[in-house]
């Protein structure tokens, strides 16, 4: 059988195989690698190819340029894709498919973060198994400043990674963290100078190329089982709460204020 060729469906996502590592790079630098619809859609087919490709031991995500990993949603599509109810449902379904595809991928995944890692960028990063960052990285989850609902899977990934205390701090305040604080709370594993990030990524690529792949994949699968939610989880409640946020006047206000670059005035309605 012919070996797969990793060709992205959009120029705004670059992909290439380097040794045992599949690189997926978000390539929208004019917008600080903000995620557009086609960027979300480009990732799952690449992961599908890599799943059964014995050459691939690690999938590494990064952002083009020096200013951002991912800065959130592409605001040029924000109104069209997220304002109407059907568009919200499609956007959430598409993002969930991509993020869960990363989280459920059987082989190790890594986010190599430089610059802005905001909103959807954090979601991509915490869907990965490993996170490394340069000292100029900046992290934030600004959902509360936009009035939007935050999906259960992303919230669970955040709580599993940093614990409920730090997760509430980040989510309730929407404040920004530098790389040092992100490392201190466990949001990233290791930090380095910006010009050393490629070398640190190469260190992980080398280790995963040499280590026993079945052992690594078994370890990942078992850890995923350990983190599965309680059977008492009320997923219908979670879904209803998220939908309520997206259908609220506050979401309209948050979205409009963001595009107008002003401070939103929320009413709790």
Secondary structure elements and their pairing?
Blueprint: E1 13-18, E2 21-26, H1 37-51, E3 58-63, E4 68-70, H2 78-82, H3 85-104, E5 109-113, E6 116-118, H4 120-127, E7 130-134, E8 138-140, H5 143-146, H6 152-173, E9 177-178, H7 179-184, E10 190-192, H8 197-210, H9 213-226, H10 235-246, H11 249-260
Parallel strand pairs: 2-3, 3-5, 4-6, 5-7, 6-8, 7-10
Antiparallel strand pairs: 1-2, 8-9
Key structural traits:
single chain, 269 residues, alpha/beta, six-stranded mixed sheet, four-stranded mixed sheet, 49% helix
Structural class: alpha/beta
Major sheet: arrangement of strands: 1-2-3-5-7-10
- End-to-end distance: 57 Å
Note the main sheet: 6 strands, mixed
Low-confidence region ranges: none
Helix content: 40-55%
Average of per-residue pLDDT values: 92
Count of helical regions = 11
Envelope shape: globular
Number of strands: 10
Q: Indicate the radius of gyration in whole angstroms.
A: 18 Å
N-to-C order of helices and strands: EEHEEHHEEHEEHHEHEHHHH
| Fraction in beta strands | 15-25%
């Amino acid at each position: 059988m012919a070996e797969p060729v990793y060709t992205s469906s959009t120029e705004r996502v670059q992909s290439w195989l380097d040794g045992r590592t599949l690189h997926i790079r978000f390539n929208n630098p004019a917008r600080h690698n903000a995620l557009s619809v086609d960027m979300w859609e480009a990732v799952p087919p690449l992961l599908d190819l890599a799943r059964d490709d014995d050459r691939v031991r690690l999938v590494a995500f990064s952002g083009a340029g020096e200013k951002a990993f991912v800065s959130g949603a592409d605001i040029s599509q924000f109104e069209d894709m997220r304002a109407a109810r059907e568009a919200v449902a499609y956007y959430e379904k598409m993002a969930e498919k991509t993020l869960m595809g990363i989280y459920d991928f059987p082989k190790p995944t890594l986010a190599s973060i430089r610059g802005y890692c905001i909103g959807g960028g954090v979601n991509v990063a915490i869907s990965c198994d490993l996170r490394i960052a340069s000292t100029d990285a900046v992290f934030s989850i600004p959902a509360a400043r936009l009035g939007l609902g935050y999906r259960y899977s992303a919230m669970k990934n955040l709580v599993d990674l940093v614990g409920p205390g730090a997760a509430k701090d980040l989510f309730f305040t929407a404040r920004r963290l530098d790389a040092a604080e992100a490392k201190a709370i466990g949001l990233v594993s290791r930090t380095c100078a910006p010009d050393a990030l490629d070398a640190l990524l190469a260190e992980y690529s080398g280790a995963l190329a040499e280590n026993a792949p079945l052992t690594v994949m078994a370890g990942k699968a078992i850890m995923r089982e350990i983190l599965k939610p309680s059977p008492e989880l009320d997923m219908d409640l979670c879904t209803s709460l998220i939908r309520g946020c997206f259908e609220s006047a506050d979401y309209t206000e948050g979205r409009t204020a963001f595009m107008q670059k002003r401070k939103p005035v929320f009413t709790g309605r």
